[in-house]
């Protein structure tokens, strides 16, 4: 049986027969090998790399017999014979390697290995969590690849290989990172969305199939398009998971990145720029803005920009980039006013309000709450009703979905009684905001009242503000303007609202939301 000569990079899945004898060349560059597993290798692995890793041949090359095996649920990472193999959680097929035709102890080895994982139609229950991927890496990532004439077909293919390696190392899975790809050229093209694939092998295949588009590198246009269109819920973006765009740039962009960077930040997207082969001195004359990287990235603190000198030998750059993409606590642009605030509502339940107006108050509370991304790692809402006494309706930790919060607001029962607003503010500062005062979210209190308070409001409101709570006062009907201003945070004009009729509350909703967002952004400067 003649052996087939293969290259250093021929993978198990490139071989077509169940058992195949191959010849590996000499002097393959060890650091370029991609090998997954130990003993049994994912078919994504380089055959010659696996053969050296398992000790069947040395770097001098030689004859290897490759036996195709069923897929496995876990390929371990093991360092052996100068090659570090990598972890892969699942792959559809595997192979084992043994010495070429000269050996006789071969068949037994082939047989015992192949029984390691019987290929039954049904997957055993316990393997289901392997599909989950790397749960510690929470990210929804768009790879914005360069498809312009700047990069050219050959480097475009090297770029695809690099993106594929990053995708594999991320540990894509149902509960791990999800990725999609957008190609930037004259016009941006979304190649596939987050929802299309949740397994590394599918993503790799999709990346391999990408065609080169050519044209100008209108990266700004593509970045803006991706920030606005790519991360919708219907396209697979997940609530509360950081949104990331990794922009690959070969040379320089043909258009302006600054505006696109602003749009991305407004949409709560973290932009990374991976620049490869900096512009030459002649090219710099064509760059609209030399500081384009700092203007486009999420923050110009060095964390979000990444440089590679060339597309060759990029394997060593994979892991550091993956570590960055998986550090969700560093994703500063994920925090927007919609997903990083605690809003406490202090609701007047005194007898002057009346049952039907009380319903209008609750509608107002719902409409404000509805605008925010409420989740266990996002924004939170709490409510307290007051007369002379205070009744906590629900705390910041009671409901962690928007649906549950809105349902809890609907179920608030009207108390009826006197009006002690000052006491109520002190109660809320202590009992509702106290437990979250050291948390990551910015705190807001919205006080709704329709009349004069029987006690002092100025002292309790000042104490609340000193505790880091921004206070908005919303008055209806007989609420005195002096009281409202005394309660409100500075500048008082923009934190004080008043309407004669309860029906006027509805018009205030957009202004209150805008006010919260303005304060949130000002606090981040």
UniProtKB/TrEMBL annotation:
Domain of life: Eukaryota
Chain ranges of the VWFA domain: 140-325, 342-512
Occurrences of domain LCCL (ranges): 2-95
Signal peptide: none
Keywords of the record: Disulfide bond, Glycoprotein, Repeat, Secreted, Signal
A Gene Ontology term for the protein's cellular component: extracellular region
Compartment(s): Secreted
Gene3D superfamilies: LCCL-like domain, von Willebrand factor, type A domain
Coiled coil: none
Pfam families per UniProt: LCCL (PF03815), VWA (PF00092)
Gene Ontology process terms (BP): sensory perception of sound
PANTHER family per record: COCHLIN (PTHR24020:SF36), COLLAGEN ALPHA (PTHR24020)
Job description of the protein: Plays a role in the control of cell shape and motility in the trabecular meshwork.
Protein name: Cochlin
Species assigned in the record: Vireo altiloquus (Black-whiskered vireo)
